[in-house]
Every structure is written in C-alpha cells, then in structure tokens.
Amino acid sequence: MNDSLIAIVPSAGIGNRASFFEKESCPKQYRFLAGIPVIRHTIMSLLSEPRIKHIFVSVAQNDKWAKNILKDLPCVSIHNYGGKTRVSTIINTIFNINIACNDWILIHDAVRPILPIRYLNSLIDKCYTDSVGGLLALQITDTIKNESNNRIIETIDRNHLWLAQTPQMFRAGILKKALSFISDRNISITDESSAVEMLGYSPLLIKGTLMNMKITWPEDFRLIEKWL
Asked: Are 216 and 140 in contact (CB under 8 A)?
C-alpha cells in the first residue's frame, strides 16, 4: 500500500468527569497511570505500528504538559490546534496539515491508553482495502433501556447495535469533505464516523476490545492500571 497514513491525537480537553477532586492539577490525559502519563501510553501504542508515518498531537493554546511528556518520542509533533470541542480540534488539525486526498488519517483518543497491536493491525489492514474507512467498535451485549424522568419507557433491540471506539480511519479527502459539511451547518457530532455517515457513506465496523476503553470516570484509572 503506497498511500500514506498519519495519526491525529486530539489532546485539548479537560476531562472534568474523570476528576477525583473539584479541581485537578492537570487534564486527565496528562495524569500518571502505572507511573507513566496516560497520553504517553496512548502514543506508544500507535508507534508500535510502523505503517503510521507521523503522529500529530493537537493541544490547547495554553498547554504546558505535552511537550515535556512526548519530546523524546520519534515521529511525533505537537501543535496548538486545540479548539473548544473535540471536533473543532480535529478540524483545525486536518486543515492545517499537508496530506493528499487519497492518503489516510487515523484519529485516536488521547485517553485510550491500551490499544493492543493486533486490533490496530486489524483496523489498518481492513481499512486499506476499503474505499472509505472504518473504526474499531464493540457489539452491545447488555439490555438497552430508553428513559424519561428516570423511568423506562422502552427496551431497545440490541441486535445490530455497536459502541464506537477509536481509532477511526478514513481517506483524507472524504474526512475533510465530511468535516466541512458539519462545520458549515453547525452540526454537533461526537466522532468522525458520524460526519462521514452524513455524506451517505457506510464506514466499516471492525471488532475492537474492551481493553481499549476510554478514561471517562475516576474509577476507570484503577481498572486500566490493573490491566497495565
């Protein structure tokens, strides 16, 4: 495969839901996990795949942690492209880097520190043979309830339902077009796949792993640290 593959790691968020205390000394991606900052675990996972040629880490304008944490890692550059939301950070990054339309962009959350190499390999292998791209995801196994005022109003059929993860990997041209589409219309999304879907594409779902969980709540640190 001759088309280039680069990765983007948005790291401009604060992560209030993961705070043990009212005010943490730093955002969750820079807190230590098994003696190493969360984001360094994440970047090292991506660096284990040689097909990823470069990793762009996009941080907030006033970020004072990323440079010291990541400065010694190869093929990694840090940029102040952080926006008010995750999607604005991605948009700022994609439209400020030089990448051809047929090349690939892989986006991975800074706070998913355990990404087993075989799942990353699987994602890249399967996306490379696809015209659009796809994402790691988990099939839902729990029963799903819809609610109103904390009371169940219906049980939703869980068949064909998946939980989206990252990385998500798409052709640069398609992703740029999709992000321009939602930006021009002020549409709110929570992942890149949603934007691609709005253009009428159907991204691939590639089986992920529970270990590739996103740190969201305080107890997630303890669980992931045990896995590490």
From this structure: no
Do 20 and 67 meet the contact criterion of CB atoms below 8 Å apart? no
The DSSP call for residue 26 is: S
CB distance 8 to 93 below 8 Å: yes
- Superfamily in which the 5-227 domain is placed by CATH: Spore Coat Polysaccharide Biosynthesis Protein SpsA; Chain A (3.90.550.10)
Q: In angstroms, how far is the first alpha carbon of the chain from the final one?
A: 33
**Residue 168, SS3?**
strand
* Largest distance between two CA atoms of the chain: 53
The count of other CB atoms within 10 Å of the CB of residue 198 is: 14
pLDDT in tens, 18-42: 454 445 578 999 999 999 999 999 9
The whole-angstrom separation of Cα 44 and Cα 224 is 16
pTM across the whole model? 0.93
